[in-house]
Amino acid sequence: MNTNELKSIINQLGQNARKASRFVAKATTAAKNTALRFAAAEIRNHVDDILQANHQDLNKALQQGLEQSFIDRLTLTHKSIENMAQGLEQIASLPDPVGEITDVARRPSGIEVGKMRVPLGVIAIIYEARPNVTADAAGLCLKSGNACILRGGSEAFYSNQEIAKALHAGLKFAELPTEAIQVLNTTDRAAVGELIKLNQFIDVIVPRGGKGLIERISNEATIPVIKHLDGICHVFIDKSADMNMAIAIADNAKTQRYGTCNTMETLLIHQDIAAQILPPLLTIYQQKGVECRGDTLTRQLVPNMIAATEEDWATEYLAPVLSIKIVADISEAIDHIARYSSQHTDAIVTNDWTNANQFLREVDSSSVMVNASTRFADGFEYGLGAEIGISTDKLHARGPVGLEGLTNQKYVVFGHGEIRVG
After folding, report:
1. H or E segment at 164?
2. Tens digit of each residue's pLDDT (9 = 90 or more) over 284-304
3. CA–CA separation, 8 vs 287, rounded Å?
4. d(Cα 354, Cα 348) in Å, to the nearest integer?
5. Are strands 389-391 and 367-370 parallel, antiparallel or unpaired?
């Protein structure tokens, strides 16, 4: 496909999405829920077709010699397809944010001023291996009244196209335009470059994938991007922390899953309790195969530990590797986080509420926690039902982005014939 043909295809997708966005923005909650539930039923009815399409993708990935971790993310099973269907049903059961009016207040002039929640418009989601993102992202966009353009990884091409059939069936059944959910039917990598510059039709880009993909989108897009790059998450164990609680949290935050963006990568420990808490923690990490790397003070207590480098403090391992630093007090812990954190999720374990409040106020991350594992930083655990991603930006959405994060607010004014004078 030549450049002009590709530009024409992407441009047409944008036009179709913009037109469809007007219809889904005013669609009733009942219509959107009907589409989601019918799509869930279609996914169940076509499990074998989806598995067959996924088998094509897997064969191609194996022929290309892709890593096993990538193959795992690409693989669909009866259980994961059922989870996909249940996810759409869960989104249908969530409250509809569109049209909600809040903060209404009467002004001295007599007018009443409030805010109404409205869709963003057209959202483009660019993602890599996981085919389930096709259903999740489309479901969230539809429920929040947005049209979406989905560009999945070429490795999941057949799976994504098959899942899209179920989504389109749901839209047709609910008498909503199928252009509200469009999945690119080309594997041409140049399509991404065209898509992220389609300012006239697309309102927001959401990249989901590895750091390389997100950096590229962030650097090249001429459209606002909702994203996070790294998940360099910290847990600080304060001197007043309950030892059993601190050990449980530091264990869970690192070892519950290694390859997630809310996994702890650096453990900070107050110097007054380091000698007491390090031995039981290191025993747990050793049993679970976690490689620990420590600063000078940590290695004085544990001489055989690998020395942490400057690069370690700034690394998202996504692996059973952990950096450990002993700090003098909470201020040093916060300073370290300010220097190295990716502003994703950071936690303190403490029984000192003054220190907890200081940590909450001064740590500038999208999620800041007291006495809880960083692994809770996701949309489902926050009660959002689902999420389209995590945002570490400071404009619009921050933290897990669910239905509310896919909408914005506009001012609405209710008058009674008032006119402005003077």
Report:
1. helix 157-173
2. 999 999 999 999 999 999 999
3. 57
4. 12
5. unpaired
